[in-house]
Known about the structure:
- The chain has 10 helices and 13 strands.
- It is α/β, with parallel strands linked by helices.
- The structure holds adenosine-5'-triphosphate (ATP) and magnesium ion.
Amino acid sequence: MISVTGISKSFGDKKVLDDVSFTVNDGEIFGLLGPSGAGKTTLIRVLTGQLKFEEGAALINGKDVRKLAGTDKKQFGVMMDDFGLYERLTCYQNLCVFADIYGVGDREIRRVLQEVKLTDAEKKEVKKLSKGMKERLRLARALLSKPKVLFLDEPTSGLDPQTASEIHEIIKKRKDAGTIIFLTTHNMAEAEKLCDHLVLLNEGKIVERGEPKELCLRYDHQKRIELVTTDGECFSMGMNKEDADETSRQIAAYLKDGKLSTIHSKEPNLETVFMELTGRKLEV
Ligand SMILES: Nc1ncnc2c1ncn2[C@@H]1O[C@H](COP(=O)(O)OP(=O)(O)OP(=O)(O)O)[C@@H](O)[C@H]1O
Ligand SMILES: [Mg+2]
């Protein structure tokens, strides 16, 4: 279990985490959703003992993150962008370096290579890998220590949908095997699909929390419909009391001209929730 209480962190006089509190339960995928600069990476660095913080407390499986020993850190798998790979070493050799540090053997290296589907590329130098393959190797490296908690900083950022969904499958399997997954993302579709619980972070502050579906329903008071014309134009229109007359007038006009192609109700999503809370878009 991860328990965070009132954490604040500043760089100089800029507060980048402001009184952040939440709990992550065993066996769940917990998502930290927020736009660029919200403080997501900073929070992972705080929780993994890479950064000091001024106020509050964070416990992982009962251990204070300020007092983590080497053996405690071996229980975490961490995947971050700036954790480099050795470009001139092969996939296998890269994992060997870390296997030594974690005290695991050849069997575990081959197991994680298989898990991320890189067995066929194990003899390839990292510099010859595609972006998606490098990302999978970074994930393999995070999985190598058989972690109880996995921290993933934007694990699918910039990846094609196929590689992203392969990574989602690996994450889900690890969750099913009992690993706590803590991931950051600014991709709302990923957050909705993958996470059991979410925290929405904006400018260092938690603005909302909950299960993805329940969060969307909570903000489902702005009922809207989406309308597509025969020219392929797409409109979103309000269905609340105050918009209803105007919306029906426009639909009637399109119908009269034979210009209406499709019409359907628009489900609320995390983007609309975030927009309502902050006035900002999640993704740029
Ligand atoms: N080492 C540092 N020194 C000074 N400021 C920093 C440092 N690291 C991060 N910041 C600032 O802290 C804020 C939060 O940064 P952080 O990297 O945590 O955001 P993020 O949510 O991970 O964004 P992104 O989605 O772009 O990765 C930003 O304003 C950033 O400029
Ligand atoms: Mg970041």
